[in-house]
Amino acid sequence: MWITATMMVVEIASGWWFNSMALLADGWHMSSHAFAIGMSAFAYGAARRYAQDPRFAFGTWKIEILGGFASAIFLLGVAAMMITGSVERLFSPQIIHFREAIFVAVIGLLVNVVCAVILNKARGGHHHHEHGAHDHHHHDLNLKSAYLHVIADAATSVLAIIALAGGLFYGWSWLDSVMGIVGAILVASWAKGLLLDTGKVLLDREMDHPIVDEIREVIEVPGHPDETKIVDLHVWRVGAAAYSCAISLVTRNETLAPDEVREQLRQHEEIVHTTIEIHRY
């Protein structure tokens, strides 16, 4: 995280100083991934710090989601500024220090390669030591996400180097502005996806998740003489892959108790909290 953040600052400052929109685009694209890795790290720390705080009814996982939502809005604004600046420079070209900008872009590419190697080793280590534990699995998914972000950064660095090389050797200075626009679109696309994903979780809009149908399949058994039916069901996320649910049932079973329903639902380890209400015919 710190390596990526440091290189992000260097690229943005250098892009501004050397008048390179391609370098600026690469730096801001790297910032989006530094935010992603940083928010994951912050969420782990916050979860540990407030793990026993009773004010958080379902834990502290949404701290990461709220941070992601805020950073997505910020990055959409950055993308708009990048597009505006790139278009302006298409019509009013400025002197670009190509050699210096290429040097910084190459360093950025090398930094991305180093980060990819570090994260890949971490993924391999977690994979090797994983014993089927639920928490280990999702920690590994976080590392995988960070790894893919770094690979995307490396691809953007390569595009920036190509654009700057075109300007240096062939005089195609317009390539730098075009790369700025391409980089802005990449940042906006990633930010839009993050905005939709985090907004969905913050608004508890997940009743179309497969876990909802799985809950119905466990409780409503077709043709069963007890005829247990779900008349009201609410499912919402309380962790990276943890869900809470509130269920109202009607049944002919005179002995059915909430603990029995919870036992039926235990086959789905994603369900970590249940509120069950039972009515009888």
Overview of this protein structure:
The chain has helices spanning 2-17, 21-49, 62-91, 98-129, 134-170, 174-202, 210-219, 258-265, and strands at 229-239, 242-251, 271-280. With 281 residues, it is mainly alpha-helical. It has 2 domains: 2-202, Up-down Bundle (Alpha-lytic protease prodomain-like), CATH 1.20.1510; 210-280, Alpha-Beta Plaits (2-Layer Sandwich), CATH 3.30.70.1350. The chain has a 3-stranded mixed sheet, with helices on one face. A hairpin with a 2-residue loop joins β1 (229-239) and β2 (242-251). Helix content is 68%, strand content 11%.
Fill in the keyword field for this structure.
single chain, 281 residues, mainly alpha, Alpha-lytic protease prodomain-like, Alpha-Beta Plaits, 2 domains, three-stranded mixed beta sheet, 3 strands, elongated
